[in-house]
From TrEMBL:
Name of the protein in its database record: Peroxiredoxin
Major place of residence: other
The keyword Iron appears for this protein: no
Listed GO CC annotations: cell envelope
Length: 343
């Protein structure tokens, strides 16, 4: 009866519990501001606090779902990440590192925090520096084991989506984990995103489906719409300036473009870069004469999501009628297919 008269009582009753982060900072002047942020199509500030004379600060708020949060100290470029769940009661320390510009970060208070720090300290360093790793990479093996042991955690879904799914060699494992995560954590945004992209990728893998249309700005400014190339064979190439295999493939694509453009082939390169400067530099260095369409949203690229792109390089070959012919043709396999289609 009371909730019928005062609906806000029901809202208050189901509000998620507050999270609290107690921080202790050394080597940081009193009055320094520390921000708790989250990236979701742009940086969002969740809370901020001022460091007191004893080096203490407290951040708090409410979350509907778990996230990977970031701590940023004013005046510093470095961010310090940690998983944050509704109701978490965490503590963290930031201590000055001798002769270094960044602070040493340590967090405590949840299994998720322990897992994340294990990933950052022990696993990620073995994966760093190469866009596409061999399947036997030790870091990938340890990451698979961590995810497999913890299928009911937010981090299992986060690490699968943001790290394992980016590796071409891990797609079979990602497919199996996507099924597990959909069963264990169906409401989690990361699990839903994996399921959607995996389903979309499976459709385009089979061929025969209409190619999803998209409109993006080009390198020269005007917008480009994929369906404007109807009547030609189109190779949509998802790539990034930081992707070694993508850059290695570009000279071969340039040769194929010169050979088959007059016969009806067009190439459209869709970048999953987030840094416009690095993207423009790569386009110039690799001398790519065909259509370049960046939206500079990284892995949040709407076009990449439309095509279920989980890793780069990914290619999609589209027929003149707008139907998908095949996915992930590269190298000699792509040359042979084009030679048959455009003799």
């Amino acid at each position: 009866m009371l909730t019928a008269l005062f609906p806000w009582l029901l809202t208050a009753a189901v509000a998620p519990p507050a999270y609290v982060l107690q921080g202790q900072l050394t080597g940081v002047p009193a009055g320094t501001t520390i921000y708790l942020t989250h990236y979701q199509s742009g940086w969002q500030t969740l809370d901020s606090a001022t460091v007191d004379a004893a080096g203490h600060c407290e951040l708090r708020g409410q979350l509907a779902d778990p996230i990977l949060a970031s701590l940023k100290v004013s005046g510093q470029k470095v961010i310090y990440q940690l998983p944050l769940h509704p109701g978490d009661q965490l503590s963290f320390t930031l201590e000055q590192e001798p002769q270094k510009q960044f602070l040493r970060f340590k967090a405590r208070g949840s299994v998720g925090v322990e897992q994340w720090q294990q990933f950052q300290q022990d696993i990620y360093p073995q994966m760093f520096g190469v866009a596409q790793l061999p399947a036997k990479n030790r870091g990938l093996r340890e990451l698979r084991a961590l995810v497999r042991r913890t299928p009911d955690t937010f981090l299992a879904a986060y690490l699968t989506k943001n790290y394992l799914s980016r590796q071409a060699s891990q797609q079979a494992f990602v497919d199996s984990m996507t099924t597990v995560l959909a069963q264990r954590q169906p409401a989690l945004a990361e699990a839903q995103a994996l399921a959607t992209r995996t389903h979309t990728a499976a459709l385009t893998e089979k061929g025969g489906e209409p190619a999803p249309d998209f409109t993006l700005p080009t390198a020269t400014g005007p917008s480009f719409t994929l369906s404007s190339l109807r009547g030609k064979y189109v190779l949509v190439d998802f790539w990034a300036s930081w992707c070694g295999p993508c850059r290695a493939e570009n000279p071969r694509l340039r040769t194929l473009y010169q050979q088959y453009q007059a016969k009806g082939l067009e190439i459209v390169s869709v970048s999953v870069d987030a840094d416009g400067g690095k993207w423009r530099k790569a386009v110039g260095q690799d001398q790519l004469p065909w259509t370049q369409v960046p939206d500079l949203k990284g892995w949040d690229s709407p076009a990449a999501q439309l095509y279920g792109v989980l890793a780069v390089p990914t290619t999609v070959l589209i027929a003149p009628d707008g139907l998908i012919l095949s996915r992930n043709l590269r190298g000699e396999a792509l040359e042979k297919r084009l030679s048959k289609l455009l003799p």
